Amino acid sequence: MGTPAKVAAVIALLAACAPAWAQNRGAGSYPDKPVRLVVPFPPGGPNDIIARVFAQKMQQILGQNVIIDNRGGAGGVIGTDNVVKSEPDGYSIAITSAGALAISTALQDKVPYDPLKDLAPVTLIARVPEVLVASTTLPAPDVEALVALAKARPGTVNYGSSGPGSMPHLSGALFAVSAGIDIVHVPYRGAAPAVNDLIGHQVQILFADQPVVLPHIQSGAIAALAVGGRERVVALPDLKTMNELGYPQMEAVNWYGMVAPARTPAAIIAKLNAAATAAMLAPDVKEKLVPQGAILAGGTPEEFAAFMASEIDKWTKVVQTAGIKVN
Fold it and tell me: Do 4-127+254-322 and 129-227 have matching folds?
């Protein structure tokens, strides 16, 4: 998020600019109409939860409605591609995932866009650790028992995901390689339907962002087996990490970033970056997202572009080394 001096400078800039943005809308200053914020997953999933909190706060900051447009499918690729093909005027933006911005490029030959060329990075919004959860009917109360079950019955344990090329997909595939087990991938059009089928015992295990599974863990509807990140999570302090359980190569942390179409004017990107940064600093945004496990990020468009490039390189190497394929 930067130094305190930088944060103070952003707040001061927003305070100075906000009245002008509101008063000059009639003169054509951006934004002078509602902004469409694409969420490339169905309602109810972690991407949707984070985006709705930011949309509400950013419309207060920008003085215009920020309207959520859910366009799920292909692990976030379909909705992200919709923004790629939109006018580069700042009125179609997205908060999208690591799957759509880095992993799909590593896994698939036919992704319809190049995230580094066809999108204008705005800022990294948040990082969210994955949690390995299971159906309450699965006869495996912990990871050790799950691995033993999968080894005894190859190809019979299945794992859901939010779509091909998504972080939950790659997390499950990496877990299979790390544990030396044969489990079957069942892709969905988003995390919410995958979790619903886990609750309904249609799938057996799932890596998912903490915000979307935490209420169901707490209610007892699903069982938590491990944290995919390197550190334990505050909301589930007794839940061990995959690293603690003997899988040091397992690091499953999702992330979400704001992007616009390539060729969006730099001044608009700067304004969106400032608004998103101000939203991250807002106490009510922190109160809604931090307890659910979101680690708010921030940074400049240039820093986010460099981060995306590093993530594409990282996941490409993981995919090649592990031999992971899209089903």
Answer: yes
